[in-house]
Amino acid sequence: MDNSICQAYEDEIQALEEEIRLLTEKYEDIQQESTFFSDEEILKSIKSFQRETQEETTGRESLSDLKAQLETLETDLSFLMKLTGFQFTSHSKKTVEKSKHRTVQKHRLSGKCHSLSFQLEFQLLEMQNKEKVSSVVSDLSIIMESREDSDVSKFVSSTEEHGNLLTFFRSLSTYAEWYEHRRRTFLHFK
User: Fold this and answer.
1) Can you tell me the distance from the alpha carbon of 106 to that of 137, in angstroms, rounded to the nearest whole number?
2) Among 25, 184, 187, which residue's Cα sits nearest to residue 96?
3) pLDDT, tens only, 46-91
4) Do strands 102-113 and 86-98 pair parallel, antiparallel, or not at all (unpaired)?
5) What DSSP designation does 147 have?
6) For residue 86, what is the enclosing H or E element?
7) How much is the pTM?
8) b/e map of 1-30 (b: 16 or more CB within 10 Å)?
9) What is the pLDDT of residues 164-182, one digit of tens each?
């Protein structure tokens, strides 16, 4: 056989082997997720889902009711964005590790707080013990637009070191609000 034909077949075989490997990994992930829940929890979920679907078929909401709910939710979201100044533009989550009592997920989050853009990347470790779930943030990486301010750089470095997301969001909200006031004031005097 011609070498080029053999090479084409070998390339196709390698591509198929790679596809098989990816599908096997995906299947194993799904299997791990299904073993995360006990049979009792799965049965409860199925029964709950069946009750919900029965209720939906017997008491379907009208289209106008759904539109009213959507408008209410949009109003609430708009209020929260105005109140906090945060507007999230993207979020992605990838499960890195999953077992019965432990889950590790990698999150990427980007958005704006008033006029300051930010990006976060972190890992979230969730551990489940009987009734209690605890979460730990690690590998926090923050990218911000206004790194020229040394105080912001120190704050970002400290937050990355301690992995405290709540402190980051609270402080960013206050800082961004006053940053916006300063910016408008300086524009007024120009």
Assistant:
1) 10
2) 25
3) 777 777 766 665 555 677 888 888 888 888 888 888 888 888 888 8
4) antiparallel
5) T
6) strand 86-98
7) 0.55
8) eeeeeeeeeeeeeeeeeeeeeeeeeeeeee
9) 888 888 888 888 888 888 8
